[in-house]
């Protein structure tokens, strides 16, 4: 996952595991101009409707995500209100949080994912909703989880989504997120057999934005992950653990 033209070899290898010369062959080439083939690609909802439970088979055991959930559940009291953004099939995030005694709400743009999540984790509440337009209850959440839901949108929308999720935290609330980092905008790639357009922010930009939003970044790290799919290349994942101060 990285931009074709205009990016250096280091950035391309981080996101795709390939050199710039290889990236077009593996991931569909340089970004298309607005109004070209990129605009005709499937939406995130359509892609994840098609993937269904296959997504859980490939990405359901990401070590960094499981570690982040262990970290979070060790700090939340029973009954803590937690929002899972991009909840997918409900596993592992919502399921882990429910077992820890949390009151979990999950949102996902995919109707198929919401249906699977409701069947897998009936103790949680799931809604078909987009983080860009979702309106939560005014009380806020004790924690918000965001594991990889922001990639299939435009770069300004990624930044706005971070702003929105931070605003939903109650004082003292935790924000735990993961993404594929990089200064990427409008990159057309092939992923899990689907042509999608992805964007992201660099690690430095993620950290700076969270700080600007009034969150203290307690920990962050990057890790390499090999998806359980023969077509997939290793991915670099950024994990951030942050908290809103109790007085804000």
From TrEMBL:
Superkingdom, taxonomy of origin: Bacteria
Region (Disordered): 1-43
GO molecular function: methyltransferase activity
Pfam families: Methyltransf_25 (PF13649)
One GO BP annotation of this record: methylation
CDD domains according to UniProt: AdoMet_MTases
Methyltransferase domain residues: 82-173
Keyword line: Methyltransferase, Transferase
Name of this protein: Methyltransferase
Species per Swiss-Prot/TrEMBL record: Streptomyces nojiriensis
